[in-house]
Amino acid sequence: FKIVKKFITPSRYEKVQNQFEKYGKWVVFMARFMPGLRTPIFLTAGITGKVSFVRFFLTDFFAAIISVPVWVYLGYFGASNFQILM
After folding, report:
1. CA distance 45 to 41
2. pLDDT digits over 16-46, tens only?
3. Rounded to an integer, what distance in angstroms lies between the CA atom of residue 58 and that of residue 50?
């Protein structure tokens, strides 16, 4: 818990809240395409309460419509061209 306190200072928390107020739906939308950052961004969106559940759900749904087929295609392409990729 001390590590979290070190990185999440009140000023940083306020900056994050301001960014979610301005760009909340776009941050959630883009987070869908960033596997390493998706979970922290989604958690932050929920904790700050700046993105409503309905807006979060719809934004993530529309981003998933785009990202899921892309990731599935990349997996299929990678598996069928494994020798070329290696």
Report:
1. 6
2. 778 888 888 898 899 898 888 888 888 888 8
3. 15
User: In whole angstroms, what is the distance from residue 68 CA to residue 5 CA?
Assistant: 35
Q: In the numeric block, which tokens belong to residue 27?
A: 């941050």
Q: How far apart are CA 62 and CA 77, in angstroms?
A: 23
SS3 of residue 50 by DSSP:
coil
Within a 13 Å sphere around the CA of 21, how many CA atoms are in the beta-carbon half?
A: 6
The DSSP 8-state label assigned to residue 1 in this structure reads -
> Looking at the chain, how many residues does it have?
86
Tokens found for residue 37: 């950052």
- C-alpha closest to that of 38 among 67, 14, 65: 67
Q: d(Cα 70, Cα 11) in Å, to the nearest integer?
A: 37
pTM: 0.68
